[in-house]
């Protein structure tokens, strides 16, 4: 019972303490709202409204001032009392124990104060804008007065540089000054909002006038002096060149000059109407046309010395390729009697002749035009460049043709030398074979030997024809040389096999009585040698049987044979050299 009493006392005490803490917190919340409301009163809007009222605003500015003032009165008469009521509600709610309602009322009061603060700042910004705009416009009045005074002075002082545009510029300035008067009146009457719209139009028109005053003098100078001087210069240069016999392609100089003079007059008329953009674009086209005319005169003037310098050289060059082609013709006629010309040499030579004839005609026509004073030197200059390229190409083609035929006799002689060499080599091979006293020759070898003989015979017949085909006989020489090399290898291999087989059979005879295998192999090898003339197979048969009897025996026979052969070859080679030196 005592413990329960203690618990009750503790709970009651805790509730009391909580209530006291809540009341203090509520008082603190109410105080913070009140302080926030006091901050609103720190914005000196009454003073700022009084300052704006002294500006004697009218029109749109006065209307805007009235809107701001009504908004401020709404704040003072409705929003401020509402905030006071909300603060009072927060304080009274704090005496009770409805925590949720107290906090909700506090949040509403804070939200209202924030909205009021935003409204006050908006009102303050609007008043500042009216004040600043009025101040800017008053400053603009002073600056524009000075600018227009200077512009009028510039127009008067530079009157001549504006040419026909002067009246338009003066009218433009007068219109701007009228707009400026309207702006000044609105500014002084206290209507900065309406004045601001006029000021934007005024600045745009002023910028345009200043731009025209900068650009027009240059445009007028080009039209009044520069272009005319240039056109007169072109006319004089053109007339002088024509008097000296110069011609121009598609000559329309007089028409072009007249057209440009007309365009200059049109541009001056447009300039009087202040069509500055149109005149600027048209002046650029006039400049381009003048540049083209200058370029045309300069091109003809520079082309003539080139043409006169190149004319003699080209004439000599044409004569040179003509003589060279005639030499080729004569040489081809001679060669054509002895050789078959297989690469269209004669046709190419005729084609060169036709090209040279065409160049001669063009060259002669240009000479006649120059002598008659009808030459367009720029066109002749281009033609001469092409002629020089054609002559160079012709000369190179002639050289290539000459090089392809000049060595035909030499190639024929080489083929004949090769024929003599082949014949000698074949005789030498036959002697080598005869000296071996072989029982016969294999059919394949005889066929190869006979084939080479036929090739040599065919080469001899082709070289003795009335018209020798050098390409064909040159190919035959290459083929015969290859076949000769192959036949030489086969001859050497056949003779080596025959000699080795013969020596090995003789060596094996010592084993015939004691070794049936060698005796049998010897009979077979001798049969291959004497009957079938298969010396390779004969050697293989006896050498394998001998190796089976005694390993290494055949290798020694083979080594001794080739060593002896090397010695004999060196001896024979030295003998041949000594005999050659004696002769």
TrEMBL record:
InterPro entries: EzrA (IPR010379). It is a single-pass membrane protein. Residues 1-3 are extracellular. Keywords: Cell cycle, Cell division, Cell membrane, Coiled coil, Membrane, Septation, Transmembrane, Transmembrane helix. The keyword Oxidoreductase does not apply. It comes from the Bacteria. Residues 127-161 form a coiled coil. Transmembrane segments: none annotated. Pfam families: EzrA. Its main location: membrane. It is found in: Cell membrane. Residues 23-583 are cytoplasmic. Negative regulator of FtsZ ring formation; modulates the frequency and position of FtsZ ring formation. Inhibits FtsZ ring formation at polar sites. Interacts either with FtsZ or with one of its binding partners to promote depolymerization. Belongs to the EzrA family. NCBIfam families: PRK04778.1-3 (NF003409). This is Septation ring formation regulator EzrA. It comes from Lentilactobacillus raoultii.
């Amino acid at each position: 019972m005592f413990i329960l009493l203690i618990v009750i006392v503790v709970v009651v005490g805790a509730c009391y303490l909580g209530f006291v803490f809540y009341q203090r917190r509520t008082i603190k919340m109410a105080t913070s709202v009140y302080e926030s409301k006091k901050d609103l009163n720190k914005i000196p809007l009454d003073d700022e409204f009084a300052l704006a009222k002294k500006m004697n605003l009218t029109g749109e500015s006065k209307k805007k001032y009235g809107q701001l003032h009504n908004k401020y009165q709404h704040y003072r008469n409705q929003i401020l009392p509402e905030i006071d009521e909300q603060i009072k509600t927060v304080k009274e709610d704090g005496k009770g124990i409805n925590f949720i309602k107290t906090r909700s009322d506090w949040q509403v009061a804070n939200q209202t104060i924030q909205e009021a603060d935003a409204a006050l700042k908006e009102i303050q910004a609007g008043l500042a804008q009216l004040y600043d705009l009025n101040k800017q416009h008053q400053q603009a009045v002073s600056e524009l007065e000075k600018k227009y005074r200077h512009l009028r002075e510039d127009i008067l002082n530079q009157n001549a540089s504006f040419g026909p545009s002067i009246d338009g510029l003066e009218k433009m300035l007068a219109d701007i000054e009228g707009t400026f008067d309207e702006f000044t009146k609105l500014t002084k009457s206290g209507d900065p909002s309406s004045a601001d719209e006029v000021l934007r139009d005024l600045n745009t028109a002023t910028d345009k006038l200043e731009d025209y005053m900068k650009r027009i003098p240059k445009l007028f100078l080009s039209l009044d002096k520069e272009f005319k001087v240039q056109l007169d210069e072109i006319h004089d240069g053109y007339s002088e060149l024509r008097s000296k016999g110069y011609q121009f392609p598609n000559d329309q100089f007089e028409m072009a000059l007249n057209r440009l003079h007309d365009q200059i007059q049109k541009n001056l008329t447009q300039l009087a109407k202040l069509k500055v953009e149109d005149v600027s674009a048209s002046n650029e086209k006039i400049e381009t046309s003048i540049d083209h005319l200058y370029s045309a005169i300069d091109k003809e003037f520079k082309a003539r010395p080139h043409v006169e310098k190149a004319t003699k050289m080209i004439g000599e060059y044409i004569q040179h390729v003509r003589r060279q082609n005639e030499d080729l013709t004569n040489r081809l006629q001679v060669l054509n009697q002895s050789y078959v010309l297989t690469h269209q040499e004669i046709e190419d030579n005729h084609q060169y002749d036709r090209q040279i004839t065409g160049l001669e005609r063009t060259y002669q026509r240009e000479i006649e035009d120059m002598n008659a004073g009808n030459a367009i030197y720029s066109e002749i200059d281009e033609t001469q460049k092409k002629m020089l390229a054609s002559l160079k190409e012709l000369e190179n083609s002639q050289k290539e043709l000459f090089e392809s035929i000049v060595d035909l006799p030499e190639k024929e002689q080489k083929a004949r030398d090769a024929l003599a060499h082949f014949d000698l080599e074949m005789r030498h091979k036959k002697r080598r074979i005869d000296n071996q006293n072989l029982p016969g020759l294999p059919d394949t070898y005889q066929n190869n030997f006979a084939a080479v003989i036929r090739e040599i015979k065919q080469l001899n017949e082709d070289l003795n024809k009335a018209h020798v085909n050098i390409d064909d006989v040159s190919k035959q020489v290459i083929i015969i040389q290859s076949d000769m090399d192959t036949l030489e290898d086969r001859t050497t291999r056949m003779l080596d096999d025959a000699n080795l087989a013969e020596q090995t059979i003789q060596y094996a005879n010592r084993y015939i009585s004691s070794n049936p295998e060698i005796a049998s192999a010897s009979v077979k090898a001798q049969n291959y040698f004497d009957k079938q003339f298969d010396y390779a197979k004969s050697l293989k048969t006896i050498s394998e049987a001998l190796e089976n009897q005694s390993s290494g025996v055949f290798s020694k026979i083979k080594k001794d044979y080739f060593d002896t052969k090397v010695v004999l070859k060196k001896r024979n080679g030295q003998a041949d050299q000594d005999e050659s030196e004696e002769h």
